[in-house]
Structures are given as C-alpha cells and as structure tokens.
Amino acid sequence: MNAQQIAEKLIKLQDADLKLREKLIQSGKLHDGYDKEMQALHDKNAEILAGIIDEIGYPTMTKVGKQASEAAWLVIQHSISKPDFMRKCVTFLRVAVAANEAAPQNLAYLTDRIAVFEGKPQLYGTQFDWDEKGQLSPNAFDDLDEVNRRRKLIGLNTLEEQTEIIRRNARLEHQLPPKDFSARQLEITDWKKRVGWI
Q1: Is the CB of residue 161 less than 8 Å from the CB of residue 181?
Q2: How far apart are CA 50 and CA 36, in angstroms?
Q3: d(Cα 62, Cα 8) in Å, to the nearest integer?
Q4: Residue 67: which of 99, 41, 102, 97 has the closest Cα?
Q5: Domain locations in the chain?
Q6: Is the per-residue pLDDT at 139 higher than 90?
Q7: What is the pLDDT of residue 30?
Q8: Which string of b and e fits 131-157 if b means at least 16 CB within 10 Å?
Q9: 3-state secondary structure the chain
C-alpha cells in the first residue's frame, strides 16, 4: 500500500470504531461492560494497525497526514485487550511526539491508560471511571497540582474542568453507573488478568 492508501485505511478503522460506539450509546450498552462486538472490532483494528506499523513504522503526520495519524492513535488507545501492542506503541508515540510528528495530548492519554490498566497512578488525569458514589471521576493520580501543571504544559484544561465536562457528557449520553460497584471492580480485575495487564 502507498501512503494515501494507508491513510485511507486508518481513517476507515477509526470511522468503524466511532460508528459502533455511537450504536452502543443509542442502545444504552456503551458502559454495560466491555461489549463483545466492540472488543472484536478493537482487536481486529489493532491487528491491521500492527501490520501497517510493520510495513511503515509508526504512522506519523509526515507519513500519513494528521487525520490518519490521529486515527492510528485512536486504534491504539482502544486496543485495550492487547497490552503488549499498547506498550510497544507508547514507545513509538513517545519518539514521534519528541520529533513533533504526533500530538503530545495523545501521548498523555495513552500513557495514562496504560498506567491505569497496570494499577499505577496516572500522570495527566485523562482516564475516568465510575466511583463508589456513582460519579465519573478520574482514576488514581499522583498529585493534583502536578497533574494540572503537566496538563497545562501540553495544552489541556485543568482536571477539575475536565471532570465537569466528562460528567456532563455522560449525562447527555444517558450513561449510568454500574448497579453493583464491587462486582464491576471484580470483573475489571478478572479481565485485566485474563488479557495480561496484571
């Protein structure tokens, strides 16, 4: 495939992901566990992207354009059942960001997502989940002042502002907290073990 074909392929992967997400929002199933159809799509997209990376390296803005590079990041961000792939990609993304070939915000989101799955505190506060009180809240992070300092350095709003946005969007999408918080935490832990995060 040439660069244009690769770019088109990456954008199609992203579009399929977003289309399925919208379908799950409309049916009220988006946050009812990890939907099997969504997991299958995420895994398939990750395999396709892995093949592209084998062919051309990380799909940077210079190689495939900004839109397709962003699409590749979304595929990586959603490849949550593939810990080795995500860890490999965060290394590639770090190099791309250092060369101004990818957005630093994308690196922050991917770094945090991996940290959360590994049971470590996040650095930028980008990852949210339902808490014991039925509120969407940031997953564990190291220090609020440091998080906000890091967020500001890469052009993100404060964690407090982002929390308001996340909660408002959840209400607009009619998202509901899990009926049984403890059972959901056990399911998440079992899933992390099964796919190899812990």
Answers
A1: no
A2: 21
A3: 15
A4: 102
A5: 1-102, 103-198
A6: yes
A7: 66
A8: eeeeebbbbebeeeeebbebbeeeebe
A9: CCHHHHHHHHHHHHHHHHHHHHHHHHHCCCCCCCCHHHHHHHHHHHHHHHHHHHHHCCCCHHHHCHHHHHHHHHHHHCCCCCHHHHHHHHHHHHHHHHCCCCCHHHHHHHHHHHHHHCCCCECCCCCEEECCCCCEEECCECCHHHHHHHHHHCCCCCHHHHHHHHHHHHHHCCCCCCCCHHHHHHHHHHHHHHHCCC
Radius of gyration of the chain (CA): 17
Q: Does the predicted model carry a pTM greater than 0.90? A: yes
Looking at this protein, which amino acid is placed at residue 136?
Answer: L
135 touches 171 (CB < 8 A): no
Determine the Cα–Cα distance for residues 107 and 97; give it in Å rounded to an integer.
Answer: 7
Q: With contact defined as beta carbons under 8 Å apart, do 112 and 127 qualify? A: yes
pLDDT in tens, 99-131: 999 999 999 999 999 999 999 999 999 999 999
Contact 21, 45 (CB under 8 A): no
